[in-house]
Amino acid sequence: MDHFQLKNGVLHAEDIPLSQIAEEVGTPVYVYSRATLERHARVFREGLKDAGKVHLAFAVKANPNLAVLRILANQGYGADVVSGGELQRALAAGMKAEDIVFSGVGKSREELTLGLDQGIGQFNLESEEEGVMLAEIAASRGEKASATLRVNPDVDAGTHAKISTGKKENKFGVAIDVAPAIFARLSQLDGLDLRGVAVHIGSQLQSLDPLETCYARMGELVAQLRGAGHTVTHVDLGGGLGVPYKPEDNPPSPAEYGAMVARVTRDWDVTLMFEPGRVIAGNSGVMITRVIRIKPGLGSDFVIVDAAMNDLMRPAIYDAWHDFEAVEPSGETMTASIVGPICESSDIFAKERVVDRLETDDLGIFRTAGAYGATMANTYNSRPLVPEVLVDGDRYAVVAERIEPATIMAAEHVPDWLK
Ligand code: LLP
Fold this sequence. Notes:
Layout lengths: L3 E4 L2 E4 L2 E2 H8 L3 E5 H14 L6 E6 L6 H9 L3 E4 L2 H9 L7 E3 L6 H10 L3 E4 L2 H13 L4 E8 L21 E2 L3 H9 L4 E7 L10 H19 L6 E3 L17 H11 L6 E4 L3 H4 L3 E11 L5 E5 L8 H5 L5 E3 L6 E7 L8 E9 L6 E4 L21 E5 L2 E6 L4 H5 L10
Parallel strand pairs: 4-20, 5-6, 5-13, 6-7, 7-8, 8-9, 9-10, 9-11, 11-12, 12-13, 15-17
Antiparallel strand pairs: 1-2, 2-3, 4-14, 14-15, 14-19, 16-19, 17-18, 20-21
The structure holds ligand LLP.
């Protein structure tokens, strides 16, 4: 459930007409709903009510906007970060260092050091080599870094290949069959407090089955590690729960997910950690765009909008579907391809789709754009970087400004020797 609904014939974010934001801030623009973010954060937590001791770390990569992170910090969420930049954002937004988990296959020496400097709660190690490096840095400072070993369970998540992470050919984690030996070696190192294991098999999962298979394997691994004399107090079960992008999508609910987790992990006696991203932020945001013009096409018309693949990359790179609706629907429909102005054929949001009828200058929205939307935007074709707005009841704020080409050019330099 989200708070982007029609009221008096106009789509609103909570109590604000989206047409008002489009007028005042311009388009394209992302709009987030505070009430929706808070609701999703609460529902995910409540889903895990029978799962014992739980630590929730929002996957910052899904939506790193500082205002969004602050809302989640206020909901008691920590952060799952994958770069020094995300770590700085989580701290700047008010997340507690001890609630921050540092994931990622390529943490540099500088990033590991930053994590130690800031006293973050846990490093999820993705290789023995990374563990050795972290242990060296921590030991040289007379410290012990809390860490888990990320395992690759070789499970097919059944999602898009580009967002699958838990098959043995993927770069993530260490293969589950060699995990006990690597765990044993790393646990000997002075600079590490290796306290558990972590896993994440992919994103936008549509079924609980691969997750259950994966978690069952993790349970066996925990038993095996304990059998070998290791102490295991933390298991990080990652993120990945899918959201509906189309009305007919029916991903498992947080309650169903939580019930499965509670059942599978009943005897583990650990703190369970989670890294949800999309399920919290996805349906908490939309992107508003304005029709530039309509151009006749061969099969159907092209609706050329002022948003492009640089603003919302998901359709171009994953063939992702985002529902498209008019901000002020007339009730009539049309079959059209929704495209942006960029000079690439992949700059297409919807191909020959039945959508609300739109004319030049009308406004439309792409739904489910709160996760992996603005954060993946760029300035290709020297377009501005898309701004972000947060709505809270009958007020709103610009929480990320539009960055114009002039600002970006100001950071570029033509060397004297070219003048
Ligand atoms: N934890 C780890 C270690 C991850 O790699 C990810 C996502 C998450 C948590 C959060 O997953 P979520 O709950 O959001 O599914 N750009 C792609 C998604 C990439 C996801 C990468 N990792 C997209 O737009 O679909």
